[in-house]
Write a structure and sequence with these properties.
This protein has a single domain (8-252), classed as NAD(P)-binding Rossmann-like Domain (Rossmann fold). The protein contains 8 helices and 7 strands. The chain has helices at 17-28, 40-49, 66-80, 103-131, 153-175, 213-224, 230-243, 253-266, and strands spanning 8-12, 32-37, 56-60, 85-88, 135-140, 180-185, 247-248. The protein has a 7-stranded parallel β-sheet, with helices on both faces. The structure holds nicotinamide-adenine-dinucleotide. InterPro entries: NAD(P)-bd_dom_sf (IPR036291), Sc_DH/Rdtase_CS (IPR020904), SDR_fam (IPR002347). GO terms for molecular function: oxidoreductase activity, acting on the CH-OH group of donors, NAD or NADP as acceptor. Belongs to the short-chain dehydrogenases/reductases (SDR) family. Keywords: Oxidoreductase.
């Protein structure tokens, strides 16, 4: 999607981190914005950073709820009559061994990271197809969607799901005429609020992994040490949208990790630990 001026961007998780940076870049490209997040305060802070005159509306949305995402889609069409660039970006992370991960961990993280994307696709794609206008969907996965990281199985399962969903969707939308493109974003660690995801954990999923702390400390340190910023990742993402690129791997080292995993599979050997730990 080359021409963005005047087009409509929908961004979930717009109240922090990457979603905020994508919002700023879309505003700088003179797009009209529909910004969603479960965190109303975060959304207000994002709006305060937008250039004067940016056409936008915000909506408090829990992406794990189908009806809330459908209401976001309806509001977008009511306000603007269109949606061109949809970022299914909201996400949360938990850590800890698979066997002590709680059902609340699984239900919360899969609900937001995977079902959030499912809801975005189900709500927006039919209307985008119906409009006949060019469009693009960007699903935020992770390098954790292309590798298997000890202590992160809940998160990895959710992000592997987003990668394969996006690949299937790409094929289907090509068969449907190719007017709507798809990208799947697979960054390694970068500094945002993701290590503090517990701030968004709903009371109904309060039972957290009792052995999550050690892994969570490692993840927090890796995020703090992230070489690229959220602004860098947003920049690379927008370039990929303009170029119509499907896989977005902003971190160079990611390619080697993916290659090793593929080689492990093809040679039917035990998986290499991407962290190099035992
Ligand atoms: N930061 C990293 O190292 C990293 C690496 C790879 C992928 N990602 C992915 O990037 C995306 C953005 O995360 P971030 O790193 O900017 O973290 P962040 O915590 O700064 O931003 C995530 C946003 O999602 C919102 N959110 C959480 N639950 C929600 C829900 N149920 N409904 C709607 N909004 C909700 C949060 O309020 C927050 O504003 C996520 O999908 C994350 O998994 C992050």
């Amino acid at each position: 999607m080359n021409e963005l001026t005047g087009k409509v961007a929908v961004i979930t998780g717009a109240g922090s981190g990457l979603g905020r940076e994508l919002s700023l870049l879309c505003a700088q490209a003179d797009m009209r914005l529909a910004l969603a997040d479960v965190d109303a305060q975060g959304l207000a802070e994002t709006v305060a950073l937008l250039p004067d005159g940016t056409e936008q509306f915000t909506r408090q949305v829990d992406v794990s709820k189908a009806e809330a995402v459908q209401a976001l889609c309806d509001a977008t069409y009511d306000n603007y009559g269109a949606a061109h660039l949809v970022f299914n970006n909201a996400g949360v992370a938990v850590s800890g061994p698979t066997w002590t991960s709680t059902l609340d961990d699984w239900n919360w993280v899969l609900g937001v990271n995977l079902m959030g994307v499912v809801h975005g696709v189900k709500s927006f794609v039919p209307r985008m197809l119906e409009s006949g206008e060019p469009g693009h969907i960007v699903n935020t996965a992770s390098l954790a969607g292309l590798s298997s990281v000890p202590g992160s199985s809940v998160y990895c399962v959710s992000k592997h799901g987003v990668v394969t969903l996006s690949e299937c969707l790409h094929h289907e939308l090509q068969a449907a005429g190719g007017a709507i493109g798809v990208s799947v974003l697979c960054p390694a660690f970068f500094k945002t609020g993701i290590a503090d995801s517990e701030r968004n954990r709903p009371a109904e999923y309060a039972d957290a992994n009792p052995q999550g702390e050690e892994y969570a400390k490692f993840v927090k340190a890796a995020i703090e040490a992230g070489r690229l910023s959220a602004a860098d990742i947003a920049q690379v993402t927008m370039e990929a949208v303009r170029d119509g690129r499907f896989y977005i791997l902003p971190h160079g080292g990611a390619v080697r990790q993916v290659e090793t995993r593929m080689q492990d599979i093809l040679e039917q050997r035990a998986p290499t630990n991407p962290l190099g730990t035992r």
